[in-house]
From TrEMBL:
Keywords: Aminopeptidase, Hydrolase, Metal-binding, Protease. Removes the N-terminal methionine from nascent proteins. The N-terminal methionine is often cleaved when the second residue in the primary sequence is small and uncharged (Met-Ala-, Cys, Gly, Pro, Ser, Thr, or Val). Requires deformylation of the N(alpha)-formylated initiator methionine before it can be hydrolyzed. Belongs to the peptidase M24A family. Methionine aminopeptidase type 1 subfamily. A divalent metal cation 2 binds at D105, H168, E202, E233. This is Methionine aminopeptidase. Binds 2 divalent metal cations per subunit. Has a high-affinity and a low affinity metal-binding site. The true nature of the physiological cofactor is under debate. The enzyme is active with cobalt, zinc, manganese or divalent iron ions. Most likely, methionine aminopeptidases function as mononuclear Fe(2+)-metalloproteases under physiological conditions, and the catalytically relevant metal-binding site has been assigned to the histidine-containing high-affinity site. Residues 12-240 form the Peptidase M24 domain. Transmembrane segments: none annotated. NCBIfam families: met_pdase_I. It comes from Flavobacterium jejuense. It catalyses: Release of N-terminal amino acids, preferentially methionine, from peptides and arylamides. It comes from the Bacteria. Gene3D superfamilies: Creatinase/methionine aminopeptidase superfamily. Substrate binds at H76, H175.
Amino acid sequence: MSITKESELIGMKKVSEVVGTTLKLMREYAKVGMSTKELDEYGGEILKSYGAKSAPYETYDFPGYACISVNEEAAHGIPSKNKILKEGDLINIDVSAELNGFWSDNGGSFVLGKDIHNHQPLVDASKNILHKAINNIKGGVKIADIGHLIETEAKKSGFKVIKNLAGHGVGRSLHEEPENILNYRVRTNRERFKKNTTVAIETFISTKSTVAVELNDGWTLVGNKGGYVTQHEQTILITDNKPVILTESNGIWN
């Protein structure tokens, strides 16, 4: 969305702080032996305490408050009482919500407990690449150039990107223009980032796959060639200089 007045900026800051805080608290709450359903219900309670509504639940009838993807799941993992978290699991939590007519989105991958399966390099790559990408965004920058930066940095780290998952505009709804802020360069895309707009930038860095495919449950995405995928996401306000990180309360870079 385009921020045209102070009240809109306040609204976006408020909902962004809520989703950021929810993500941070869920990450801290996750423990070995816990089900992803229990983790999700904890997140749902936090959103409710702020008067916020889960965006995937409200928008798409998603069967959970947040998407919680574990190990080989790339995105849109359904919280389940049968999915029990284990030491060394690669977990992704994606929290988006609506509050007072404003929407915000953020996410992060992390290793639970000891990194016994060596997932940390993939997590770090995703985190660092997102940081670098966001620091290069300002009004007038080509969306395709940021995609190029993300893919180039992924290759430097020995990884690939998922090409059919993307960042997007956010604000008055969960997904707005620009719809495809991809993790690679599309040469024909001439679109540029616009000053005073809010967008969700997200990395999808992977070990083997380049395409996410949907499982039979109609939600869960996995890599087309297996392996693992990490995602980190922030909602930002684009300016003439460095963007304002609206979801900074998630602490994913701390």
